[in-house]
Specification:
With 220 residues, this protein is an all-alpha fold. Helix content is 86%, strand content 0%. It is built from eight helices and no strands.
């Protein structure tokens, strides 16, 4: 086996470990928000530094790969795409940490199940988790058709996010004492939407890596 192939395997292994950690962070932030579970939220925050460490490690490995092997063609696309993917995965971890912080610092009692159902937060989180799983499978199998599935899920996440504004506005009119808390909750919802955007970015980078097609800003 060539040294370049060995190094690529090594980088992919580190990426797989990071993705497993971030996948757990997303799931736990989901659980923390919908169940108002501060213990789980603290778990998310305690692992944030590990996500950051993985990002730095993978970035250095990619930089060293470029410096040592001067890659071309698909190897170059792989390492360039992976550096961007790595950043997006780390940002997903940041958003999970932000949601955990919201749960921990929340002052008011949990919102009613009726409001959370109207906001479709459970569905929104499930869509994001599906998107991240699709990205993981697409990168592992180098399957751009799987990566393209992400875009449809992102449209749904955007719709749920947009619908949250009138739902929260109506709730504030009925319960003005919760206005400030509704603003804080919308900040958490915004983070879920940004998770979807980052998965979208990852799917675009996978398509660039595999097919050498640049689809950013093209409307897919």
């Amino acid at each position: 086996m060539k040294q370049t192939e060995e190094e690529i395997i090594h980088i992919k292994q580190a990426v797989a470990e990071m993705w497993q950690l971030v996948e757990s962070q997303i799931h736990k932030s989901h659980q923390a928000l919908l169940k108002y579970d501060t213990m789980v939220a603290h778990e998310v925050q305690s692992r944030e530094k590990s996500v950051d460490s993985y990002e730095l490690y993978i970035d250095r490995a990619c930089e060293n790969f470029i410096a040592l092997f001067n890659p071309v063609a698909i190897d170059l696309r792989f390492v360039l795409s992976l550096m961007k993917i790595n950043n997006n995965v780390e940002r997903l971890g940041d958003f999970a940490d932000g949601i955990a912080h919201y749960v921990i610092t929340r002052q008011q009692p949990p919102f009613s199940d009726e409001l959370l159902k109207a906001l479709k937060l459970e569905q929104m989180f499930r869509e994001v988790e599906t998107m991240f799983a699709l990205c993981k499978r697409a990168l592992t199998t180098e399957d751009t058709a799987v990566a393209a599935e992400v875009f449809g899920h992102d449209h749904l996440v955007d719709e749920i996010h947009a619908n949250a504004i009138p739902v929260l506005a109506a709730y504030c009119r009925e319960h003005p004492e919760y206005t400030e808390e509704c603003f804080a909750l919308f900040g958490a919802i915004r983070r879920i939407e940004r998770m979807g955007d980052r998965c979208n970015n990852i799917a675009e980078d996978i398509i660039f890596y595999v097919d050498a097609k640049e689809i950013r800003h093209t409307g897919k």
